[in-house]
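Table S2 (text version). Query chain:
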Amino acid sequence: MGPSAPAPSHGRSAGVVTMAASGLSNQVGAAIGSLAFPVLGPAGVVAVRQYVAAVVLFAVGRPRVRDLTWAQWRPVLGLAVVFGTMNLSLYSAIDRIGLGLAVTLEFLGPLAIALTAARRRIDACCALIAAAGVVTLMRPQPSTDYPGMALGLLAACCWASYILLNRSVGRRVPGAQGSATAAALSALMFLPVGVVVVLRQPPTAGAVGCAVAAGVLSSAVPYLADLFTLRRVPAQAFGLFMSVNPLLAALVGRIGLGQHLGWAQWASIGAIVGANTLSIAVRRR
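Corresponding structure-token output:
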């Protein structure tokens, strides 16, 4: 084929490296953002993250807001509400139960979407494995934080809704205009939160810096990386790598924040990650 033949392999390698960097960036960003919780609280950190995401997505998507019809606005508005609620519930869960467990519970959202769309016996087995992991995570113990667990499950529901709404927005609004508009609306919704946080307790430069870093590392970098990756890596491989995110979150929480997990919690994370990995991997056959 000539000298250009190795390009696809090189592109896939670059895509894999980008996926790894994106996943690590997302979890490191959340960990850094959690350092600002004592000053800004989860809501304040999420507000700053939404502002950063809005600036980046608006610059990339360049939406023509005035040209949108009401049929296009409806899913965009829903996406804006879900986007903000998802991040707020996730960061509130991180504050209560730690990074690894919060991200694992949130991951149940896309896993549920994938499994409910399938009709194979292996998918039923994967659903049972994931359910066993959830039951183990939420088993009654003196230290079990049920509000934190509930917030993690709310984040999962929001992520599932986010996926479905994104599909609807993608069909109705060209390019990234819908996502950019939703991010901007979500940021506007969080403006009052930012005002309240500032009036309640003037934020320190360090706290604001951590929140901005969370916005860049957990919103801007993953979004731009996904645009790059999906052009070079098959969707199935992308889904397989996404399965590793709960493990990355647990490791970042352990190394960066000193959040220790017991063997049962590690086993639960492994079961949920394994269920998704198995479900995606067997689709190749």
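Notes on Table S2: The chain has 13 helices and no strands. The first helix runs from residue 7 to 34.
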